[in-house]
Write a structure and sequence with these properties.
The protein has 1 helix and 30 strands. It is mostly beta strands and 411 residues long.
Length: 411
């Protein structure tokens, strides 16, 4: 038999139809096997840890290894694995160091498992990143920390965006660079959440005078704006039966309602009030709820706002004052102005002096010291400020004055 090391001395081109049995090493510039049932078989008994290897020579060998348990590994060097196909059917893809599998097909459970590092993408499908603006399609990414799933789909200006599913089952969308989250149809933005947390519908910027809907909640306050160029701003429709349409509450308790009964609308648990100020625009915290107020001629001014009807007030100092304006409710602390809220008509409480007795049904007038007292007759006059509806005392102040329920008649 011809020895393998001598074959190059005999032929430079051979067409073998039988079997070539080589006990040594065959070195060739290439190998082509042409046959419909062509098979390259590597035989030999492998012990534990032994492999059959097909490799390319060089400093960084690229190896195809068949292990003792018939698993197959594709390596870019002797120690760096890229793909493993295991005898049980599992397939693993390795991270950049070639030591840890990050994507695994589990043949027994028929599941694809992806594992990313902390805060990194487990699945990142990238689209056309050369596009910009609202047309950019940045694909989809899934992030494994806290069970988050992220979608990067045409959201302008964000480095990445993430839809997070928290442990409580809540869904949260994050934009780390404080950009807007925009929802659109027909290639146009229709709704967005801006960096301060405001939800804007039909508008791109906040502003009370900007047409659209604005729902706010954040460090700059909680507020909602509904603005239209013309027509009805907002509609409330209760079907099936009569009852409450709008409830108003404080600290979880309903304090007032707007009810529908047939063709009648009722405003329950409220009064008509207005803004006013003291003559010198100061804030006198000694004025307490229920104090009787009187009208002054000077008008309130709010910078360049046009005010045709809101005059200033003072604590009533005249007994039987015909200029009674209502009773003090509270100071407004929402802005820099020292505005006070004064109740004029409807359900309220009124302040009565210590030692003064009132009865249900009494008409009240100013006592001249910020309190009210019985009028002395049952005729409604210009000095009449209220009618007592109950003698139940809701509060007593340190000076002995107290509050009772009434219906105000100051206008």
């Amino acid at each position: 038999m011809t020895r393998a090391k001598d074959i190059s001395k005999i032929v430079t081109d051979a067409d073998l139809s039988g079997t070539l049995d080589v006990a040594g090493t065959v070195t060739a510039g290439g190998l082509t096997v042409e046959d419909t049932d062509a098979t390259i078989t590597i035989t030999g008994t492998r012990g534990t840890g032994d492999t059959h290897t097909i490799s390319a020579a060089g400093a960084n060998n690229q190896n195809l290894n068949i292990s003792a348990d018939d698993s197959i590994f594709l390596r870019t060097s002797d120690t760096v694995q890229r793909i493993g196909i295991f005898s049980g059917g599992d397939i693993s893809f390795y991270e950049d160091t070639g030591t840890t599998a990050k994507m695994v097909w589990d043949a027994s459970t028929e599941q694809l498992e992806l594992t990313g590092g902390t805060g990194t993408a487990s699945l990142n499908v990238i689209g056309n990143t050369s596009q910009t603006g609202t047309d950019a399609m940045a694909g989809m990414r899934m992030v494994d920390d806290a069970g988050s799933i992220g979608f990067r789909v045409g959201i302008t200006g964000a480095t990445f965006n993430r839809l997070g599913v928290t442990g409580a089952g809540e869904c949260v969308i994050y934009t780390p660079d404080n950009s807007n989250i925009i929802f659109g149809t027909n290639n146009a933005g229709r709704m967005r959440i801006n960096s301060s947390g405001a939800l804007l519908v039909g508008k791109t910027a906040r502003g009370f005078n900007t047409t659209g809907v604005e729902l706010r909640h954040g460090s700059d306050g909680v507020d909602s704006h509904f603005t239209v160029d013309g027509g009805t701003v907002c509609s409330f429709n209760r079907k099936t039966n009569d009852g409450s349409v709008v409830n108003f509450g404080q600290d979880g308790t309903v304090e007032g309602q707007i009810n529908i009964s047939g063709t009648t609308t009722s405003y329950l648990g409220g009064h008509l009030s207005r803004w006013s100020r003291l003559l010198d625009n100061s804030k006198d915290t000694s004025i307490v709820k229920g104090t009787v107020m009187t009208n002054l001629d000077e008008m309130v001014e709010w910078d360049d706002e046009d005010n045709e009807q809101l005059n200033k007030m003072a604590v009533s100092s005249v007994e039987g004052d015909a200029n009674v304006a209502g009773v003090f409710v509270n100071w407004d602390d929402d802005d820099e102005w020292n505005d006070m809220n004064v109740a004029m008509t409807g359900d309220m409480v009124i302040r009565i002096a210590q030692g003064t007795t009132v009865a249900r049904g009494d008409l009240l007038m100013s006592a001249g010291d910020g309190t009210a007292k019985p009028q002395g007759d049952d005729i409604v006059r210009s000095k009449t400020i209220a009618k007592v509806t109950s003698t139940n005392v809701s509060h007593t102040y340190d000076d002995g004055t107290y509050l009772v329920p009434c219906v105000l008649m100051a206008c």
